[in-house]
Amino acid sequence: MPSEMSSREGDGPDENDLPVTRPAWPVTALSTAAQGGLLWVLVAGVLAWRPGPRRRAAGRGLVAGAAGMAVGHGVKAVVRRPRPRAQQLPARQALPEQPKSPSFPSTHATTAAAFTVGVALTAPAAGAAIAPLAAVVCYSRLRTRAHWPTDVYGGVAIGAVAGGLVHGRLRRGSTPGRSSRRRRSAGGRGRRGG
After folding, report:
1. In Å, how far are 71, 89, 116, 163 from 121, measured between CA atoms?
2. Are 71 and 110 in contact (CB under 8 A)?
3. Is the pLDDT of residue 18 over 60?
4. Minimal CA–CA distance to 99: which of 112, 83, 115?
5. d(C-alpha 52, C-alpha 71), whole Å
């Protein structure tokens, strides 16, 4: 793991080429809003405003995000990687609440990726629209020194897989026409028998 020593010497970039100064408030605000998946619940609410594919995408995104978050916390409990020692840096001090859980993977990144993939596989245009928001959330975890870069990359990978698996499972369970065929088949048997 890289040392934070070089970043304490001044306000220049650290070994990950990220500034050590306090980030812009939108970066900190997004990082805070994404805590516990709240940001994605709000985004899902906007997507679900009107009926149609985006509403279905919102539901699948929420299920995928919850699954990604659960998997991320499970991996954290096993790996138990320490966070970067950056408590004294202005970048970390910008966070209103200092993270105390293990570092790998970033559950912010895991949840963001899982939600985005779950939405994108159902409604590609909606997924493309929220992907930049997910990217900024991931960046915010690096910029505030809450995670090592590999925590965020690992979180994105885990979240993408979780989102894809959840989407596949939900899609199989709601294949168009299956339920109507069953109803017609059951209705037909009832009429013939009666």
Report:
1. 20, 39, 9, 9
2. yes
3. yes
4. 83
5. 29
pLDDT level of residue 9 (50, 70, 90 thresholds): very low
Query: Per residue in 89-146, pLDDT tens?
Result: 777 778 778 888 888 999 999 999 999 999 999 999 999 999 999 999 999 988 888 8
124: how many CB neighbours lie within 10 A of its CB?
12
Q: What is the pTM of this model?
A: 0.77
Average pLDDT over residues 141-160: 91
Q: Is-contact 53 123, C-beta < 8 A?
A: yes
**Hey, what are 189's tokens?**
């048997």
By the 10 Å C-beta count (0-12 exposed, 13-18 middle, 19+ buried), 115 is classed as: buried
Query: CA 190 from chain center: how many Å?
Result: 47
